[in-house]
Amino acid sequence: MALVLAVVAPLALTACSADEGAPAFVAPTQSAPEPAPASTEPLALAVTPAEAAKNQPVSTEIGTQVSGGQVQSVTMTDAAGAAVAGAMRADGTSFVPAKPLKYGKKYSATVVAVGPDGKTMEKKTSFTTMGKPSKKTGAGLYLFSDRTYGVAMPVVLEFTSPVPESARAAVERRLFVTVDPPQPGIWHWSSPLQVMYRGPQYWQTGTKITVRAALEGVPMGNGRYGDQDRLGVGNIAKEKIELIVDNATKRMQVFKNDAVVKTMPVSLGKTKTPSSSGTMVIMDKQQKTVFDTTDDPGNVDRYVVNIEYAQRLTWGGEYIHAAPWSVKDQGVRNVSHGCVNVSMANAVYLFNLTSIGTPVTVKGTERKIKPANGWTAWSVGWADYVKGSALPVPPELAALGDPQPSASALPSPSVTPTP
What we know:
single chain, mainly beta, Immunoglobulin-like, L,D-transpeptidase catalytic domain-like, six-stranded mixed beta sheet, five-stranded mixed beta sheet, 4 helices, elongated
């Protein structure tokens, strides 16, 4: 198992995950660092916060800057002398406490660095944390350990207040992701209210993703601070399921482990209400629901209709769902309000096959999916995706590109729709 730090990484916010079903701490650490190469540079060590610093966030880390050697140990204690658990970042730049510190309390730390000749240097510091802030920003983390997700499931954090650009790098540094088996990933800000994490290709089947969003006390901009840490676990399904919808043929291809297992007719959004093109993921599944647009004053085409086997693709209201009223149009013409209409039998089949996080690619419609209109991490290629990180992306990671041919790149089925 290897840790990937912040760069490597709205069902309503009532669906937020705090710490249920998650491990107590995702340690931002890897194996012990390699011994420092021989150097003639004298050993030097500096630590932060500065001695006697006051009003520090409860997310404070013990920063270490070493030349002519490397950090050997960091010991942190509270005012009573009790040890504070934590671990070093993989790059050795700081010690991260395993839990948020307490408000209005004093802490001390001792850092020991060692040079290639075995000589050591010790630095001590102490500081006091700030009182409880009056303005906080909450977050929703959509990973629950009792669920199985599709291979395109991004790690999604949604915030209750906008995070300005000036605060995003600090926030991103506090987002720790462990992927087992190891796979690279990057965080991407699709809006001030949403940040998502994915790799250059879909997760391997059977992957386990563990996340610590260590945001309690982190300055979030505009005088706000993170309200609490959140922990989540995502288990990726044992089979790769992918749905490809082509407007040109009015057909959906269903792929299992990259092989076509079913093709079915569909009806997409009519010209005035087109479906969105792009790669989306299923965000929610409801066997029965009601579509009610009567509360939308800007919608001249208002309706209330009972829906079965609905699978949500966008916050704007696009779903895959059973539409027995449009069976005669499926495979022939588009008549929906933007949804992917299928027959009752096909809707049941898809509902039983897919998971939240299953990728759904729609091709050839009149409009493209808008960023943050759902979990849109896969709606752009890797080269554009990495530009959404608030932290520098290592060149070797940025250069990975989009290596998979995913099923969405395969030729469309050669089907001539019935006139």
